[in-house]
Amino acid sequence: MPDRPLHTSLHLENFTAFTDARFEFVPGVNVFVGENGTGKTHAMKVLYAAERFYSSGAPKRETILGRVFGTDDGAELIRLGAGGQESRASGEFCSAPWRYTLHGRGYGGQFKPAPKKALQRPVFIPATDMMGHSKGFLAANNEVVLDFDLTYIDIVTLLGLERRNESGQNGRASKLSAVIEGSIAYNETTGRFYLVTQNGRLAMPMVAEGVRKVATLVRLLDNGWLQPGSTLLWDEPEVNLNPKLMDEVVGAILALARSGVQVFLATHSYVILKELDLQAGPSDSVRYFAFEPTENGTKINPSEDLAALRPNPILDQYDSLYDRDLTRATGRSRNGEPVR
Amino acid sequence: MSLFVESNITFDFTAATKVIEHDKTAPTHSGGAVDGNKKWPGEDFRVEEASGSWIWLEVKSWDPSRIAPSRRGGSRWSFICKMKSNEFLREMRGKFLGTTAFLSWTSKLPTAPIQFILLFEPPHSLDAALLGSRMTRMRGLIEDSRWSPTIAVSVLTLSQWSARFGRDYPAY
User: Fold this and answer.
1) Helices within chain B (DSSP H only)
2) Domains present along chain A, CATH in parentheses
């Protein structure tokens, strides 16, 4: 066993958007950048499934991938146009290789050799806020089949569970608590979260969604699910978040990584990328992965330097905006041709 | 050839109808016409184009060749601090107002459209998002739909200048 549990690699073959994609991860912050539909969330979900298998309360290996992706049919995860070939997802977690094989008839999982002890649960924060929709959610999920994949069920579960906090992350949580201008209370009976401020208590559905995003992180820090050795997978942290708050959120992400939490982010936000670029110090490990759509599936281009990341559709779009803005203002195209 | 130097950038304004420099005391003054505005701030160059429109050009470039190696770090830092401050944006507005007031009081205010251009060459390249942000802030301080003649504000790097204006006015 290594000093801390880490995802070190991932290899996706004929899997969803990928034909043959390899990732080598850093222990700190791994950032996925790409257009819609290039598989950023899928890459994070397959990592989540692989790690979730080792933690308590995990679904059987035959079903965990389907549960995480929200599909009953393993064939749906095989890349379209793969011509009936097998699909494989494999990687290394905790120095142990794992592999999943998918074919038209179902799943085949292989997780050998397994880590020697059960690990704590990874944390996957979906793009859609769940803190404001927690009331009765788990009870309903036990009664009927809800069309929510396991990442949604799990995040609501973790938000409601107290785990002894050994992380030493309280300082960071306090700073984020100042951002949300309050603390978080939970009613176990109803499953409702509240934001407690100096002026009173607000049910979470009444709280701005961006604040709920930060509150989710505060809660996970407070109740001990983000500790050294944890994995945080956060899909589009920028959703509903005002750019002014991204400074603190990225600071918290880097603080978590420095404390020993391995982080995976998928983002479409220039501000998130730039904050990471500006706030990360020389000793921080941050690696960006460009998801490049090609005719032969998504290709992965890693880079430790944001400026060198190609393609970068976020920066490309700002370049385009700036270019068009200059054309309008100067009356000259980028080739010097008059446009008026 | 009509060459003008500002900071470490040389402009060839041969194709222009007229070029007026603000500061004839600058060590790099090329000997061209000056506007006589000694009371108020103004842009480095006012360039009348063949079409009759004007370019008011301010050049801000960090030039390490003119700074002793031992002082370059501090100079670079002070350049960055100045450029990212709101004081710098107010300075740009001050130059615009100084020129406008001078031309107005001397009855020489042009009637043709004016482009107010900041040619900005920082020590490190800046993302388009950040340049665009500064440009929007500058517009907020200078542009107004009621102004006549019309004013259009841009922030360009040297490479952007070369792409859009280099055919008429090469710079290097």
Assistant:
1) 72-83, 86-105, 128-142, 158-165
2) 7-127+227-330 (3.40.50.300)
